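Letters spell out the chain; backbone shape is given numerically. Take this protein:
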Amino acid sequence: MLVSDSNILGDLYKNCKDAKEKIRYGALYAVSRRNDVKTVAKIIDVEESTVYDWIHR
C-alpha cells in the first residue's frame, strides 16, 4: 500500500459509523502502517485469512 492509501484508510476509520466497517478499516490501516497481518488478526480476534481477504478486496 502507498502512504496516501494509509492516510485514506485512517480517515475512513475515523469517520466510519458502522462498527463492522470500522474494524475492517482499522485492521487495514494497521497493516498499511507496517503491522504484520498475524498481529492485527490476533488483536481484533479474527483469522489471518480474514485480514488477507479484506486486503485483497
The longest helix spans residues 19-32.
